[in-house]
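Practice problem: SsrA-binding protein
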Amino acid sequence: MVVVAKNRKAYHDYFIEDEFEAGMVLTGTEIKSIRDGKVQLKESFISIKDGEAWIKGMHIAQYDQGNRFNHEEVADRKLLLHDYEIEKLDKAERIKGYTIVPLDIHLVRGRAKMKIALAKGKHLFDKRQVEKERSMNRDIQKAMKRY
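Answer key — structure tokens:
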């Protein structure tokens, strides 16, 4: 498994509850750009529409050797999930107020897969608390290392 792109902001802005792995429906030039590492997940999110999962706002740069049949850089792309997974994501999003965020894109045997998660948004004080805990743990590890 080779990680191509990671959404680091997701771990900073959300509490990650449950993770899923989804396939993606891509064209030839899209997968070639992803293999080159020219993809960004920064502003992207996932929505459920008519029983299908779609990723919106994901940026895949155009392939350099692509001709006039090159793809659009920012477009809605379909995610491949089982029906029960889509139903679980949809219920959590509608009823419980969760958000579905992409975590990373990785390659498995030449195929692009996306790790997505059910997440709850963090407030500013939550972010400060997490940063404080990390800092304290770092200090404890340094002190333990000296002894």
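Discussion: The longest helix spans residues 124-146. Students who identified this feature from the tokens alone can consider the problem solved.
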